[in-house]
Every structure is written in structure tokens, then in C-alpha cells.
Write a structure and sequence with these properties.
This protein is an alpha/beta fold. It is 39% helix and 21% strand. GTPase that associates with the 50S ribosomal subunit and may have a role during protein synthesis or ribosome biogenesis.
Length: 428
């Protein structure tokens, strides 16, 4: 086994192009990931294959080429821009005589550096444990004795089995802690829903400028750098939106194409802020040549976390890096905002974003005057529970005369529960 590398060491980057579109990765993104991890690149080796080699992933000849390059450059680590199987990783380590890291391991390392909160650290540790559980090596078997006879009886459990058991126990402990944190988050979320405070969640490809925009809107002072995965821990701040009132803005982890499933699973608690949002602000780096691909990658992750049905507004950020772009709002045929062009860094177009938020969130509020008979007073109690009653009076027949204001989706849910009966109580 080789020692785990320290950030700042020299690395050889390996990028293989595959003929199948779904297996392709981006070489420039690998450079950005390596830079974000604090690694110094001493060279890039590229190749082309129809499909991965079962033993060395990149093929025998290419593996020998990498080994020679590592020796010539005195590199400390080889980083692949792909996910390797445990066997492939070990085989390449053997031939190169240095540590080998795949794309998933590299992203996990960046996450480990960035995590700040207790929840974030737990989620990163959970993802790391699930990742290394398939990469345990029998490094202590020469000390084990499991044969019969005097002097040959062993402890009855190999080191590999011990390690696996300890990993399982640690994973169970972390899951319990994360479940506790998730319940605390859910309490806060329910309290916001009772107060009718809409939640707006920033989503987008990593390094699209979400945290810079978040800081510009809220003056929160969140860590923002021109690097991948600068933000891991969700940050919530209150903002004021005209014609809507207070709203909660959430800054969340950036997405990336082919985001490892273990990471998505580990960060589901964090991404709940996205799943439960009333509106998604999908921030896009409009100066990036791959912006269309990045948008598609974000949609894939949103589908995976079941947030693809939530209304969204595209926010094209970094217009200061384009020659002909101006701050503006693009609308659809009904006049509803669909895109906002702005620059968070240059503080250009922020007022247009607030205008679009006011229009979109304002449409989501249901306001009605209701007259509910005494026989149906249970619906009055339900409306009180949702904190939707603005005023309440009684007429001569003892009917409840209410003015209500509540999120449209809550009103639709209540309409469905009443099988449309609430519609009969609306006063035109």
C-alpha cells in the first residue's frame, strides 16, 4: 500500500477519450479539479479507446507509458479523469509504483478539504467510507493464523474482515447522526412553511458563481473562490422581495457531470433544501463554452434528487466576461420571466433578478375570500393550522367569513383533500 498523497504534490493527469458519448469526460475539468485539490500537474497523458481495458483501464501499452512518465517526472500520484474499479486502481499502482486516484477519489478529497460544518464533515466521511469499503486490501494476512492445531490457532477473524466490520459500524453511527441533523432541519423547514416564507434555492454547475451571487444579494460573507466545489455546506439567509415579503435564499453545493452516486446519496440531506424549494435559481456561467452541457448535467442531478418538477429561473451570470451581453430579463410568450442576464461580480443586473423573483413568487400566492358553513368548520381549523387566515368574522347564519393568503401549492393540496369542496366557498 502507498501513503495517501498530500495536497500540493506533483501529479500526472490521465485522460482517455472513449467512442461512446456517455463515458466521455472533460480534460479541462480535470485540470480544474486537480487545481482545486491543491495538486501541481506535471503533465497530461491522453489516449483513445473504444472501451475500458479490464485490467489497466487505459490498456497495457498506455499503462507502461504512464509508468515511464511518472519515473521521468518523479511524480507522486497519478490521477485518472474516470472512475476506476478497485482492481484497476491496484494494478496501475503496481506498475507505476505510486498512488493512483480516480475522478471520484479526487472529488471526495476536494470535498474533505471544503467541509466546514458538522453535517458537511459527516456527509463527506460517509461518502469516503462507502468509497474505500470496496478498496480494502489484505495488508495483514501474513500475521494471521487460522489453521488448526497447537500454536496455529488465529483470532478467528482476518484483518480484512475486521476492517469491514469497523467500517460498517462507523457508517451506521454516521447515518444515525445525519438522521438527527435532518430532523432538526425539517423542524426549521416546517416553521418556515407555517410562516408562509417561500424558499429560493441556488443551483448550478460548480464554479458558476452561485456563492458570489449569494453574497451580493445577502451580504452573507460566504466563502467564494474561482475554483470547483468552493461551497459544500448549505447556507440560508433571509431576503426581502417586493410584493412577496420575506423569503429564504439557500446556497447549495455545485453540481458536476457524472457526479458519483455515493456523493449524491451522502448529500441528500443538504440537497433537501433544493428538493423542498418553491423556486430554483439555476445559475449558469454564460462565459463558459460548455454552458449548454453544464445545464444538461444539472438537470440530470435535479432529476436524480427528484427536484426536476420545481419551477426554475435561469440566471446567466458573468456577462462582464462577454463583449455584447447586457443585463436583461428574457420572457416567454405569456410574459413570464425565464432568464435573467447579470454579473454578480460587477454588481450589474441584480435589481432585475429581484424583479423576476417578485413576479414569479408573487404568482405562487393564493388569495381568496371564503364563506364556510358551520357544518364544514373543520376546513377553518385546517386553514388556521397552515397560518393562512388573514381575517376571520361570522355572519348572521353563523358562517365563517375568512380572507386567506397562502402558497398556491398548499391551496391546491387543500383543494385536493377537500375533493374540490373548498371551491364552493369562494366569494367572487
Amino acid at each position: 500500500m502507498f501513503e495517501r498523497y498530500e495536497a500540493g504534490e506533483r501529479a500526472v493527469l490521465v485522460h482517455i477519450d472513449f467512442s461512446r458519448e456517455g463515458e466521455r469526460e472533460d480534460l479541462e475539468e480535470l485540470r480544474l479539479l486537480a487545481s482545486s485539490a491543491g495538486v501541481t500537474s506535471c503533465g497530461v497523458i491522453t489516449g483513445r479507446r473504444a472501451s475500458p481495458h479490464p485490467k489497466y483501464f487505459c490498456g497495457t501499452g498506455k499503462a507502461e507509458e504512464i509508468a515511464h512518465f511518472v519515473a521521468a517526472q518523479e511524480a507522486d500520484i497519478v490521477i485518472f479523469n474516470h472512475s476506476l474499479s478497485p482492481a484497476q486502481e491496484r494494478n496501475i499502482e503496481t506498475i507505476c509504483q505510486c498512488r493512483v486516484l480516480d475522478r471520484t477519489g479526487l472529488i471526495l478529497d476536494i470535498f474533505a478539504q471544503r467541509a466546514r460544518t458538522h453535517e458537511g464533515k459527516l456527509q463527506v466521511e460517509l461518502a469516503q467510507l462507502r468509497y474505500i469499503s470496496t478498496r480494502l486490501i489484505r495488508g495483514w494476512t501474513h500475521l494471521e493464523r487460522q489453521k488448526g492445531g497447537i500454536g496455529l490457532r488465529g483470532p478467528g477473524e482476518t484483518q480484512l474482515e475486521t476492517d469491514r466490520r469497523l467500517l460498517r459500524e462507523r457508517i451506521k453511527t454516521i447515518l444515525k447522526r445525519l438522521d438527527k441533523v435532518a430532523k432538526q432541519r425539517e423542524q426549521g423547514r416546517r416553521a418556515r412553511q407555517r410562516r408562509e416564507v417561500p424558499t429560493v434555492s441556488l443551483v448550478g454547475y460548480t464554479n458558476a458563481g452561485k456563492s458570489t451571487l449569494f453574497n451580493r444579494i445577502t451580504a452573507a460573507g460566504v466563502y467564494a473562490e474561482d475554483q470547483l466545489f468552493a461551497t459544500l455546506d448549505p447556507t440560508l439567509r433571509r431576503i426581502e422581495v417586493e410584493q412577496v415579503g420575506p423569503a429564504i435564499l439557500a446556497d447549495t453545493v455545485g453540481f458536476i457531470r457524472h457526479l458519483p452516486h455515493d456523493l449524491v446519496a451522502a448529500f441528500k440531506g443538504t440537497l433537501t433544501e433544493t428538493r423542498e424549494a418553491d423556486l430554483l435559481l439555476h445559475v449558469v456561467d454564460c462565459a463558459d463554452d460548455r454552458s449548454a452541457e453544464n445545464i444538461s448535467s444539472v438537470h440530470e442531478v435535479l432529476t436524480e434528487i427528484e427536484a426536476d418538477e420545481i419551477p426554475s429561473l435561469l440566471v446567466y451570470n458573468k456577462i462582464d466576461q462577454l463583449d455584447d451581453a447586457v443585463a436583461r430579463i428574457d420572457r416567454n410568450e405569456e410574459g413570464v420571466p425565464t432568464r435573467v442576464w447579470l454579473s454578480a461580480q460587477a454588481d450589474n443586473g441584480i435589481e432585475l433578478l429581484f424583479q423576476a423573483l417578485s413576479e414569479l413568487l408573487g404568482q405562487e400566492i393564493a388569495e381568496h375570500d371564503l364563506v364556510i358553513p358551520a357544518s364544514d368548520s373543520r376546513w377553518v381549523a385546517n386553514l388556521h393550522e397552515l397560518n393562512a387566515v388573514q381575517s376571520l368574522d361570522y355572519d348572521e347564519q353563523g358562517q365563517s367569513v375568512l380572507r386567506i393568503k397562502m402558497p398556491e401549492r398548499d391551496w391546491q393540496r387543500l383543494m385536493k383533500a377537500s375533493e374540490g369542496r373548498l371551491a364552493d366557498f369562494i366569494q367572487m
